[in-house]
Every structure is written in C-alpha cells, then in structure tokens.
Amino acid sequence: MKRALSLVVMLALVLSSASVLTQPTGQVTLRVTLDGQPADALILAQDRFGKLFIAYTDLKELGFARLTLPQERYTLIVDRGAGFTGKPFTQEITVPAGKTIELTVSLQRAFSPAKEWSYYSADLHAHSTASLDGHTPIEQLVVVQRAADLDLVFISDHETIAGHELFLKTAQARGVPAILSEEITTPLGHWNAYPLNCAVTYAPNKTPKDYFAAARACGAQIIQANHPGSSSDGYFALLGAEIFDYGFDAVEIFNGEFDQGDAKAIEQLFKFWNEGRRYIAVGNSDDHDWMDFRFERYGRPRTFVRVEGEVTAEKWIAALKSGRAFTTYGPLVNFTAQDGKVLPGDTVTLSRGQEISLKAELLVLPRDPSQEEPRTLQSAQIVKNGKVLKTFTLSEERAVITLTDKPAERSWYLVRVVADDGDQAYTNPIWVEVQ
Ligand SMILES: [Zn+2]
C-alpha cells in the first residue's frame, strides 16, 4: 500500500552493530544548531558501499551527538525538518581509527511558516514503545519529532496512556508544547482523542458512541477518525449502519504515504462537507519506528495550524477545532479570502451576486537529505464544493494564486497543491453563506 521509496530510504540498511565493531573504529562528535540555537537533528552517515548509519542528537544534551563508526569514508548528513525546514548539512568525512572528529553544524530555516504565517505543525498520530507494536522509546519520540522540526510534540499509543507522564516531562524539559492522546479501537475504527487526562479503556462490545463519550469525559476536544478509508479497519465502511455515530471532529485524509484509503477518506469528507458536516481535515505519519524510514516517517505528513501569539497545546487544539489548518507532505500553503481577513475554518456571509476573492501563497522546500536539487511546485487547484473550480500550472518553488468567484448558494472552497514529486497538501475549507 506504500508507494516508491525515496533515495535515502532505499539506502537505509541498518547494520547490526555486532558485525561492524570488529573493525577499528573512530568517533565523530557534532554540535548542531538551528538558527543559532542548539537543536535536535537526525544524523545519517553513509559509507562508500551505501550502508547507512542512523542516529539522532542526544536526549539529554540538546544538539550534541557522539557517533562511533568503523574506520571508513562517509557522506555525513545532518537533517532538521524532513524537507519542511530547509537544506540539510552534508559533508564528506573520513573517520580515522582511534581518533575523534569534531564538527559544528549550523542549520538555517529556509522558510518559517511559524514566523511568516503563524502556522505551527504537529504530527497527530505517533506511536512509542508504549504501543505493543511501537519501537520508538517514549523519550526519543520527543527527540525525533523535534528533529523533524515539528512545533508541538504528540503521542498516541494503542489503548494506553502509559507513555504520557515521561513524554510530557521530556517535552517540558525542552520547552515544547505536548499533546497527549491515545489510539482507541472500536469495532471498525481507530480514533485519536486529544487532549486526554485519563485513559479510555478498550472493550470489544462498546460502540463508537460509547467511546466518544468516554473520551470527552477524559477531556478530549478532538476525536480524530484515523485512516477511515482503510479497507481493513476504516470507520467509513460503517457508513449507513446503525452503529455509525457522527460525534467525531477530525478526519485523517493522509495516513503515512498516500494510498487508496486516503483518497477514499477525501472523497467521503467532501460529501460530509457538502452535507454541511464541518469535520477537520488532518494528515499524520502513524509512524512506529524512529530507525526505519521504509514506510512512514515521523512528521511526514503533518498538520499545520494557525495560532496567534504564543503557542500552547490548548490554543493550538482550539484553532485546529475551528478549522484553521492545512495538511501536507511538503508544500506549504497560506490560504485566505477577502484581503487576508478570512482564514480556513471561517464563514463569510455574502449577499447574492457579491464576490469572494481567494488568495493562496504557496511554497515548497527540498524534500529530504538525499535530494540535491530543489523541488518545485507543479500545480494548484481551487476546489469548490468538491469540484475543481480552477487548476493553476506552476513551475517555481514559490507562487501566489488568486481567484474571484460569485457563489450562488452556500459553498466551501479549499486549495490543493501538488509538488513535482507528487507530494501534496490540502487546506481546510473557507465556508460561504449566501443571503
Ligand atoms: Zn496508529
């Protein structure tokens, strides 16, 4: 169900350390900063034979890393942002036996959605070792999400909140807002409820409605339908059944790499929107393993939310609930209407014959550490009530698109953006009432 892998991922063969430690080794130490401040980062060291060592900067000492590597030549890559922040640092190094190489790495953001547009990102579906099928230690889940340059960190394990306390403590030590969730299973359906202050326990005979009530009682502002278009465990298969309950808030339209289930989720969400059911579109990685990039990668896709002033988990969640969000595999989009006064999630009331003027600023940054050439935008669409109103052909890294329209009746508009490698983004709708 996953599509072709990126170059760096194909090369990502993790060596068993037993086989390499018989060779003479040397050390590399790194001090990594982002825009001048010590920062979490991903480190890849690839030898001449294509073997790749994966590491992250230290949990305790922010931005510091010490790697022990076999004596060899390497291409060293230090990445922050997984293609959402700017170019990674790359350098050829030779690790001499018994010696230490010291490196200072100063990374810069090429573009900051937070600074420029007040959009802050999180990955609203992320597993740790608290999940039976999770391989990312709870504390490291904070490091890896920060290395992906997510502004808020998020935890959602299967049927447990056992990781919450340590996760929150780790995030607080880094001064990063944290959102605590749990992936709850119902007959045909997986749900991330957040924020949670208690556990929602699994019982196979409970209905979705029971679970929604239990999650609300634990403080949940948002109940998110995870991969609802999935053919194996997607909630939308229950549509039309008596057990189907509409009491959720968000729909995951991207879950890991884009597939048919995601396309189905989008199709159904458009139907909901046409019925006036204003669910929020979100997109998340559903990653389980920080050392394996073959399928999912923390922070890709991710959801950006517009928050004014200082960001807290509460403010971010409230803004998401009001629909001020877009979700993306890479392209960034600032969608507004009426000269910037109207944002996604807002409702504009027009008199009959009155125009709405739509505008979107678009941008895409290099995708991942293996990509030398900058990627570009390929196209953008303005979608009205589920149908493409206009397609724009694009070829640059940045673009601005505008369109005016005279809706004759209640309508919604969104922007879809596609980059030249197929990575896409969807905004949430701007809603229009016509008097
Ligand atoms: Zn999951």
Account of the protein in words:
There is one protein chain. This protein is of the alpha+beta class. About 15% of the residues lie in helices and about 35% in strands. It has 8 helices and 26 strands. The strands form 5 sheets. Strands 9, 16, 17, 19, 21, 22, 24, 25 and 26 form a 9-stranded mixed sheet that branches. The protein has a 6-stranded mixed sheet with strand order 10-11-12-13-14-15. Strand 21 (about 375-385) and strand 22 form a beta hairpin. Helix 4 packs across helix 5 (about 165-175). The longest helix is centred in the middle third of the chain and has 15 residues, at about 260-275. The model is unreliable at about 1-20 (pLDDT under 50). Bound molecules: zinc ion. Zinc ion (ZN) binds near residues 125, 127, 183 and 286.
Keywords for this entry:
435 residues; alpha+beta; Immunoglobulin-like; TIM Barrel; 3 domains; nine-stranded mixed beta sheet; six-stranded mixed beta sheet; 26 strands; globular; binds zinc ion
